[in-house]
Fold this protein.
Amino acid sequence: MGSLLVGGLVFVFLSMATSIGLVVRGRLPDHHLNAESKDVIRLATAVVGTLSALTLGLLIASAKSSYDDAEVEMRTAAARVLLLDRVMAQYGPETDKARQLMRELIERRLSRGWTAETTDETSGNAPGEYQDIEAVQAVLRSLLPRGSVQHSLQARAVEVSGMMAEAHWLLVESGEEGLPWAFVTVLVCWLSLLFATFGLQAPANLTVLSILLVCALSVAGAIFLVSDMANPYVGLIRVSDAPLQSAIERLGEP
């Protein structure tokens, strides 16, 4: 589900909850909304409000952590690509085929996007990314090093390509994690209850309604940020692929 859609639905739910509170307020007997009743309502909503704030804080922290991890992964991937290319360049012209395969791998990755859903898709005659990585590794393993220097460079190249393959499968396995929807569902229920009590206690004038709508929009904006940052490779707030773009410009240099 798109992050904008999630934020929009949350805003609709909170606005509806506020409207329900206003409607119920007009139909309740006066003694149900006297000073003592309002004090009890405020105490009850304070508990729910505290739980909602804690839950929203946890979600924001989790989403920010996911985004930061993805940013580090992107920079690490770019660094490994450059390192592997330089190691193969030092080995000699025997690695030209592997270097070309790796360049095609990165170009395909940039064109498809950096997501678990697209990374292993085949497109026409183009194989999935894992097959590209394995092809590079096959070329590296088939090399016949002459001397200790080339033997060391081959071992290092195989090691780095293995780390790239490992990062690929980690992305695939963790691609379905995303947003903890159970947390979000419970949070929206709590927030809806809060806004319903706001409407229950609020006088029906334009100023109060405008403030409540702005508050609902603010909360929906927070949920949108959580949803968008929990999927750091897609959406409006996404990890930049600038490190890979910079890396590909340097690939193939002698």
